[in-house]
From TrEMBL:
GO MF terms held by the record: 2-succinyl-5-enolpyruvyl-6-hydroxy-3-cyclohexene-1-carboxylic-acid synthase activity; magnesium ion binding; manganese ion binding; thiamine pyrophosphate binding
Free-text cofactor note: Binds 1 thiamine pyrophosphate per subunit.
UniProt superkingdom: Bacteria
Keywords tagged on the record: Magnesium, Manganese, Menaquinone biosynthesis, Metal-binding, Thiamine pyrophosphate, Transferase
Residue ranges of domain Thiamine pyrophosphate enzyme N-terminal TPP-binding in the record: 13-123
Record's subunit section: Homodimer.
Protein name: 2-succinyl-5-enolpyruvyl-6-hydroxy-3-cyclohexene-1-carboxylate synthase
Domain Menaquinone biosynthesis protein MenD middle: start-end pairs: 221-402
Family recorded in the similarity comment: Belongs to the TPP enzyme family. MenD subfamily.
Reactions the enzyme catalyzes: isochorismate + 2-oxoglutarate + H(+) = 5-enolpyruvoyl-6-hydroxy-2-succinyl-cyclohex-3-ene-1-carboxylate + CO2
Signal peptide positions on this chain: none
UniProt-listed Enzyme Commission number(s): 2.2.1.9
Gene Ontology BP term (one): menaquinone biosynthetic process
C-alpha cells in the first residue's frame, strides 16, 4: 500500500464526517492511529483536541457532546488505549450521548501472533455501542472511496439517530503510516453534499391510541406528572402547559431543566425528594396515576414511593424505545415524541382533576422549602447549603455540572426553582464517579460558563483531566466538597452496623492537600471560611480565566446528622400540615 492510497482513504472518511455534521474530535497520541490523527488535524473545518489520557479524553468528548447535542469523535491507537475508553462508552450508552469511537488497530496478519500492542478489538465494547464495523484495509479505488464515505456517513447518523449513543469503527492500518497531504484533490468530492441523507418522521399516537390513554385516566382525580433527567427546552414548555391545563403537580428532577428558567413554575414541586423521605407522608399520598417523561429520577425516596403504590397507573413516555423502569411494577410504555404527545393530550379535550390534590402538594412543597432553606451559621459549612449559595451565585446563562454520590442528591434536595437560565447536567447513565472533571471541561470547551460541583473522591479519580484546562485555558469553576472520603456511605447501614471496618472499606479518607494538585495544573485555588467568602469567591471565579477550584471542607459524620435532623424536622412540619 502506498501513501497516496492511505491518504485518500482516510481523507475521504474524515471529510465525510465533516459533511455529516462532525465538528470536533478528541485525539489521544499514538503511533498506529497516525493516519487518523494527522488527517483530522489537517482538515480545515474540524477542531481537534489532544488529550494524553484516553479515559479522560472519552469523558471530555462525552461532556462536549452532551453540551452541544451533537456527535463528537474520539481517536486512539491500538491495544489498551482503546480499553481505557470503556467507562465513558458505557456512560454514553446509558445516558444516550452520541460518540464516534475510532480505534486504530494492527492489520490482520499481526493479530493473535504475539505482536506488541495488539489485543482483540473486534466488538470489544460489546452491547454498549449501537453499531460496530471493522473497516476495510485502506485503498484508493473508486469503490473503496465510496465505501469509506458511506461508512462515515452511516456512523454519524447512527450515533445521533433514534436514542443517541456510541458507535465504534475499528481501523486496521499497515505501515507506512504517514499520510501525504501534498496530493491533489486531497479531500475529494468537493461539490457534493453528505453521502447519505437521513430523515426521521414523526412518532405520534393515532386517534385510537390517544383515546385509550385518555380513557384510562379520565375517571380519576389525583395524578402526578414526573419529569426525570432530560435536555429538551421544548419539552419543558409543553410539560408546563400540560400541567396548567390539567391542574396536576410536576415532580421535577434537578436534571429535568424544569427548575431553572423563565418559564412558569407554579406547579413545579422541587421538594418532592425531601417530602417523600418520610414513610408516614408517603402513606398519606395516593396518586391514581403517574405520567413520567425523561429518565428515572435521581430520588431514591421517589423510587420507594413507586414500590409502595402498587395500584397506581404508571405511564412511561419514551421518544423512540427503551425500558427505563427499574421499579419492576406494571407500567405502560408509550413510544412517541413527548412534545407532540403533550400537544395531543391537551387538544383531545380538557380533563378535570382534583385541584385540592394540587393545592396539597403545593402547600407541602412550600413548607419543605422553608425548612430546607433556613439560615445556618456563617462559619459552619453544611453540604446542602452549598447548593443554595451556589445557585444564588452562579451567573445566568451558565451550566452546573453535578457530580454523583452526594452532590447530585443534595442538588435534588436543595436546588430550588430559579428564574436564572441554567442548564443542569450530570453523568447519570451509569452514575459512576469517574471522568466527571473531564466531562465538565468538555462542556466548557467552547466557552460556556460551567460550574462543577464534585466530591473529593470523584475529584481525585480524574486528576488527569485537569491537564486539559491547562493546555487549552478552559474556563471552569470547581466547587470541591471535601469531607475526606465517601460521604454517601455515612447514610448507609454499614456506617453504624460495621464500624470496625467502615473507615477502611467505605469512608476511605485520603488526607490529600488539594491545593498542590490544583496549582500544579496552573489553577487558582481558594479555601473559604464563611458563606459570604464562598459566594464572593464564586463570583470572582467566573471573571477569571482558566481553572478555579474552591474547596469547601466539611465533616462527614456532622453532615449525615445534619441531614437526618432536616428530614425529622420536615416530617414533623408536614404531619402538622395534614393534622391542621
Amino acid at each position: 500500500m502506498n501513501n497516496e492510497a492511505l491518504t485518500r482513504y482516510v481523507a475521504n472518511f474524515v471529510d465525510e464526517l465533516y459533511r455529516s455534521g462532525l465538528t470536533d474530535v478528541v485525539i489521544s497520541p499514538g503511533s498506529r492511529s497516525t493516519p487518523l490523527a494527522m488527517t483530522f488535524a489537517e482538515h480545515p473545518n474540524i477542531q481537534h483536541w489532544v488529550n494524553l489520557d484516553e479515559r479522560s479524553a472519552a469523558f471530555f468528548a462525552l461532556g462536549m457532546a452532551k453540551q452541544q447535542n451533537r456527535a463528537v469523535a474520539i481517536v486512539c491507537t491500538s491495544g489498551t488505549a482503546a480499553a481505557n475508553y470503556y467507562p465513558a462508552i458505557v456512560e454514553a450508552y446509558y445516558s444516550r450521548v452520541p460518540l464516534l469511537v475510532l480505534t486504530a488497530d494492527r492489520p490482520h496478519e499481526l493479530r493473535d501472533v504475539g505482536a506488541p500492542q495488539a489485543i482483540e478489538q473486534i466488538k470489544m465494547y460489546g452491547e454498549y455501542v449501537k453499531w460496530f464495523h471493522e473497516m476495510a484495509l485502506p485503498d484508493d479505488t473508486p469503490s473503496l472511496l465510496e465505501y469509506v464515505r458511506g461508512k462515515a456517513s452511516r456512523s454519524i447518523n447512527t450515533a445521533v439517530g433514534g436514542n443517541p449513543g456510541p458507535v465504534h469503527l475499528n481501523f486496521p492500518f499497515r505501515e507506512p503510516l504517514l499520510p501525504d497531504f501534498s496530493i491533489n484533490d486531497l479531500w475529494g468530492e468537493q461539490n457534493v453534499s453528505a453521502y447519505h441523507y437521513y430523515s426521521d418522521g414523526e412518532r405520534r399516537l393515532n386517534e385510537g391510541q390517544l383515546d385509550f390513554l385518555i380513557s384510562q385516566i379520565a375517571e380519576y382525580q389525583n395524578g402526578i406528572i414526573v419529569c426525570g433527567p432530560q435536555m429538551s427546552d421544548g419539552l419543558v414548555k409543553k410539560i408546563i402547559e400540560l400541567s396548567k391545563c390539567w391542574c396536576l403537580p410536576i415532580f421535577a428532577d434537578p436534571l429535568s431543566q424544569l427548575r431553572a428558567g423563565k418559564h412558569d413554575k407554579e406547579n413545579v414541586i422541587e421538594g418532592y425528594d425531601a417530602i417523600l423521605k418520610s414513610k408516614q407522608i408517603r402513606d398519606k399520598l395516593n396518586p391514581d396515576f403517574i405520567i413520567r417523561f425523561g429518565a428515572m429520577p435521581v430520588s431514591k425516596p421517589y423510587l420507594l414511593f413507586l414500590k409502595e403504590k402498587k395500584n397506581t397507573l404508571h405511564f412511561v413516555i419514551e421518544h423512540h424505545e427503551g425500558y427505563r423502569e427499574p421499579v419492576g411494577l406494571p407500567a405502560q410504555f408509550i413510544f412517541a415524541d413527548p412534545i407532540l404527545l403533550c400537544q395531543d393530550l391537551m387538544s383531545s379535550g380538557r380533563l378535570s382533576f382534583d385541584q385540592n390534590w394540587l393545592k396539597t402538594m403545593l402547600n407541602m412543597n412550600e413548607v419543605t422549602k422553608q425548612s430546607l432553606l433556613q439560615e445556618t451559621s456563617e462559619q459552619v459549612f453544611t453540604e446542602g447549603h452549598i447548593i443554595k449559595y451556589l445557585s444564588e451565585s452562579v451567573p445566568d446563562q451558565s451550566i452546573i455540572y453535578v457530580g454523583n454520590s452526594m452532590p447530585i442528591r443534595d442538588m435534588d434536595t436543595f436546588f430550588m426553582n430559579t428564574p436564572k437560565q441554567l442548564k443542569i447536567v450530570a453523568n447519570r447513565g451509569a452514575n459512576g464517579i469517574d471522568g466527571l472533571t473531564s466531562s465538565a471541561l468538555g462542556a466548557a470547551a467552547h466557552g460556556e460558563k460551567v460550574t462543577l460541583i464534585i466530591g473529593d473522591l470523584s475529584f481525585f479519580h480524574d486528576f488527569n483531566g485537569l491537564l486539559l484546562a491547562k493546555q487549552y485555558r478552559v474556563n471552569l469553576t470547581v466547587v470541591l466538597i471535601n469531607n475526606n472520603g465517601g460521604g454517601i456511605f455515612s447514610f448507609l447501614p454499614q456506617a453504624t452496623n460495621n464500624t470496625e471496618h467502615f473507615e477502611v472499606l467505605f469512608g476511605t479518607p485520603m488526607d490529600i492537600d488539594f491545593e498542590h494538585i490544583v496549582t500544579m495544573y496552573g489553577g487558582n485555588y481558594s479555601n473559604p471560611t464563611s458563606w459570604s467568602e464562598f459566594q464572593q469567591l464564586l463570583a470572582q471565579s467566573h471573571q477569571q480565566a482558566g481553572l478555579s477550584v474552591i474547596e469547601v471542607q466539611t465533616n462527614r459524620s456532622e453532615n449525615a446528622e445534619w441531614h437526618r435532623q432536616k428530614w425529622i424536622q420536615i416530617e414533623k412540619e408536614l404531619l402538622a400540615l395534614f393534622e391542621g
